[in-house]
Each structure stands twice: as C-alpha cells, then as structure tokens.
Design goal:
Layout: E1 2-3, H1 4-14, H2 19-30, H3 34-39, E2 44-45, H4 47-61, H5 66-70, E3 72-75, E4 78-81, H6 94-102, E5 111-115, H7 121-129, E6 134-139, H8 142-154, E7 161-164, E8 176-181, H9 214-223, E9 227-236, H10 242-251, E10 254-261, E11 267-274
Parallel strand pairs: 5-6, 5-8, 6-7, 8-9
Antiparallel strand pairs: 1-2, 3-4, 9-11, 10-11
Helix pairs in contact: 1-2, 2-4, 6-7
Length: about 280
Amino acid sequence: MDELRAVLRDAADSLGGERGEAEQLLLHLLGKSRSWLIAHADEPLDASTRAAYAELVARRAAGEPLAYIVGRRGFWTLDLEVTPATLIPRADTERLVELALERLPEQAAATVLDLGAGSGAIALALASERPRAQVTAVEASAETLAVAARNAARLGLARVELRQGSWFEPVAGRRFALVVSNPPYIEAGDPHLSQGDLRYEPAAALASGRDGLDDIRHIVAHAGEHLQPGGWLLFEHGWNQGEAVRVLLRDAGYAEVFTAQDLEQRDRVSGGRWVAAAPA
C-alpha cells in the first residue's frame, strides 16, 4: 500500500501539477480535513480507496469541473452545494454581492429580488448579510431550484422565498427595492462554450442570443415594473458589454447608471436607479 504523500504526489502530476485540486479530491473522498491530511501524510492508503481516488482524478484530468466532482463550491462566506444543474459560482459574482450590499442598509427590511437564482449563491449571500431583508429568488429550472432550496435549508436561510418561473413571471404585481441578477450573457456562438468548465455547465444559463444580451434586454425592459421608486437594478455581464448595457439602462429610464470592474479590472457589473417609466 502506498502512503498518502506518494499517492497525492502522483495525482498532482496527473493533474498538471495542481496539488491543491489533488488534495481537494482526496479530502472529499476521505471525508477529512486538510489538517488531518498533513498529520497523516505517512499513513498507507488501501487498494480500494486508491482505486476510487484514481477514478476521481481521472474525471478531473478529463476536464470535469472540480466543483461538480466534489459537489461543493465556496462563495462569499458560504459553502454551497452545486450540481450539473447549476452554474458553478465564481469569485467575479461576489462583486455583484458587494455592490448590492452597499445599497441595502444593514437594519432595513428591504425587499430584494434575485433573478436566475441557480444554486442560490447571490440570494443566500445577501440574506446572510442582511437578516432583515426579504429576499425572493426566481429560477426557471425545478431541478436547479431544488439545489437552492437545499442550500437555503442547510445554511439556516430558509426564510429566502424561492419561486419557479421565467424571470419576472413568478412575482407579477410585486415591487422590490433591489433587483439583482447574474443572467446568461455569453454570445451563442462563443467558442469558449465548448471549452473548459463551460462544457459541463447548463447551456441555458450561459448563452443568450447572438450578442449575449437577449436576457439582459428583457430584464432591463421589465425591471421598472417591479422596482419601487428609486430602487436599484444590478446585474453581471461580460467584460466587453459594459458600454452596451449602459445604453440599455439609460434608454429604459434609469439614472445614476454605472459599470463596476471585477478583480481583473474588467467591466463586470452594471446598474442604475429606477426613476422614470421607459419612454414610449
């Protein structure tokens, strides 16, 4: 039987030197912590466990996302369940959470709508930071919404209201102080859709028309019907879409329109304050 240290080294080599990923896969299989691994690096690993680990490593080496293999991904301060029915939460989306929190006073019982909830990442992050906020999350896929529901229950955030349906349909007649979304925004013909982790993620949650803006157009056009006067609309978008979405927001009657950059200083989140009905 090989010791853990040697098995881990071989796995990292198979993953192109990604020791961190090799460790995550092994800890997931063993159900142990990293501190345990450090303390027991000289212990042997039995043949059946080695075989199971080799299978996980092979899946990752073939390109399957690490988050789907281990069924978890950290986002904000939360540990979220993810499945192939959900997008994998990414650090760039935390910028949207930051900007939303700036517009949600800590003690205010504000109403918040998250469109396209996925795993629940945005809605649950906001609810965890603003316990008095009334957060509603809408998701079209029943399978995806079930993942968000499990995350909400496990994190003790079951007060988040989950609704199934397309965009604003499940909240007809309701208005919110803040509407947030990480909608599909990749161009339908973008070659990246057939590369890397994107190959495995749900296509309907990634691409949106020829220029990637079909769903954003819909959200911008209809959000005013669901925003309180002075309410904010914030959404994530592609790095090259900032100028286009600012035009959409201004044309729809939003004020204080802005675009914020992500960690790599690329346009990532835009928004505006609702002050007028869209022009006829």
